[in-house]
Amino acid sequence: DDDKKKKDEEKKKKQEADKKKETDKKKKDEEKKKKQEADKKKKQEVDKKKKDDDKKKKQEADKKKKDDDKKKKQEADKKKKDDDKKKKDTDKKKKDDNKKKKDEDKKKKQEADKKKETDKKKKDEEKKKKQEADKKKKQEVDKKKKDDDKKKKDTDKKKKDDNKKKKDEDKKKKQEA
Predict the structure, then answer these.
(1) Residue 177 above 80 pLDDT?
(2) What is the per-residue DSSP string for the chain?
């Protein structure tokens, strides 16, 4: 009986040990499972955070690029606008300068033409005056010559008359004698 009792107790002990072993295994399995789930959850959270961070980074990068592009475009537009204005102003100045030069050249030409005309008029008047003076001089010379010729003619006639008179007197005297 003692043997049987002992045997039963050993059997019972073994069963309890087996049961404890099983319970421990179960407990261990559950803890392992819990750990796996916790790890899985942690990994999901880490992945989600990474995904969110990546998304945020991409959005920020996209926004920055968009802002930079916008700024670049605005600057390029402003530069173009400024360059266009500058070109327009330069062209206007060039046009104004050309007009001014053209007007000045025109004025100079008019003044030169006027001077030319005045000089010509002056020259013509001097020529006319000289011609009139020459004409007057010629008339005076011709008149003097005419007067001298008349005087000579008169003198010659008087001489001739005197000679005739003398001749006649001489003839008369001779006859009387």
Answers:
(1) no
(2) -HHHHHHHHHHHHHHHHHHHHHHHHHHHHHHHHHHHHHHHHHHHHHHHHHHHHHHHHHHHHHHHHHHHHHHHHHHHHHHHHHHHHHHHHHHHHHHHHHHHHHHHHHHHHHHHHHHHHHHHHHHHHHHHHHHHHHHHHHHHHHHHHHHHHHHHHHHHHHHHHHHHHHHHHHHHHHHH-
